[in-house]
């Protein structure tokens, strides 16, 4: 699987180069490593940023809080979840390119520049990069059955329309604070697994 990942990664790098995005330019992008993640995460992939470029330091204001951020990193470790590798190549490559964009300066989020890259790549190369993937759709496109995440522990049921909600965590307050999203009915804890 790791070998397939490397082959597809190289294809992505090549395609991006053809439209003027040089992923291998260490001056701008830094070093990228790509691996399969060891655990089967829910998410498609992630990009861990390491070795922040001291010159790219900036302060982000979040209300009264000030957060120190870096716009640029010299090392990026991309991890792709193993379940993604069972899907169609185009979906795997979508995931890879999504994470590659996070390696670009000022792209360690899903902000303006991230969106610009995504849009440009989608238009030029026919990718379908978005902020978040759609698992059900991607499984369907790969002709695979999609199993909902069975990792939940609590079943909550709407007392009015019967809609069932599954949760990993549970807090009693939830029952008072929230109502059914469909009919606004009262919720009740049905089962703990
Ligand atoms: Zn992302
Ligand atoms: Zn309801």
Give a verbal description of the structure.
- The protein is of the alpha+beta class and 193 residues long.
- The protein has 2 domains: 2-141, no CATH class; 154-192, no CATH class.
- Helices cover 30% and strands 25% of the residues.
- It is built from 5 helices and 8 strands; from the N terminus they run H-E-E-E-E-E-H-H-H-E-E-H-E.
- The strands form 3 sheets. It has a 3-stranded mixed β-sheet. A 3-stranded antiparallel β-sheet has the order 7-6-8, with no helix packed on it.
- Helix 1 (2-18) crosses helix 2.
- The mean pLDDT is 91.
- Residues 158, 160-161, 163, 180, 182-183, 185 line the site of one zinc ion (ZN).
- Residues 98, 102, 110 line the site of one zinc ion.
Detail the topology: elements first, then pairings.
Elements: H1 2-18, E1 31-36, E2 45-52, E3 57-62, E4 65-70, E5 73-80, H2 89-102, H3 112-125, H4 135-141, E6 154-158, E7 164-167, H5 173-177, E8 187-192
Parallel strand pairs: 1-5
Antiparallel strand pairs: 2-5, 3-4, 6-7, 6-8
Helix pairs in contact: 1-2
Bound molecules: zinc ion (2 copies).
């Amino acid at each position: 699987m790791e070998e397939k990942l490397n082959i597809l990664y190289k294809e992505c790098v090549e395609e991006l180069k053809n439209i003027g995005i040089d992923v291998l330019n260490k001056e701008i992008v830094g070093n990228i490593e790509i691996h399969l993640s060891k655990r089967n995460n829910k998410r498609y992939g992630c990009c861990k940023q390491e070795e922040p470029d001291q010159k790219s330091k900036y302060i982000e204001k979040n209300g009264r809080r000030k957060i120190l951020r870096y716009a640029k990193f010299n090392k990026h470790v991309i991890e792709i979840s193993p379940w993604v590798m069972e899907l169609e190549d185009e979906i795997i490559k979508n995931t890879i390119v999504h994470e590659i964009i996070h390696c670009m300066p000022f792209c360690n989020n899903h902000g303006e520049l991230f969106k610009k890259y995504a849009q440009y790549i989608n238009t030029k190369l026919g990718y379908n990069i978005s902020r978040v993937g759609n698992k059900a759709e991607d499984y369907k496109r790969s002709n695979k059955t999609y199993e909902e995440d069975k990792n939940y522990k609590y079943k909550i049921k709407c007392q009015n329309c019967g809609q069932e909600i599954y949760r990993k965590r549970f807090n009693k307050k939830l029952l008072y604070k929230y109502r059914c999203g469909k009919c606004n009915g009262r919720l009740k804890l049905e089962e703990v697994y």
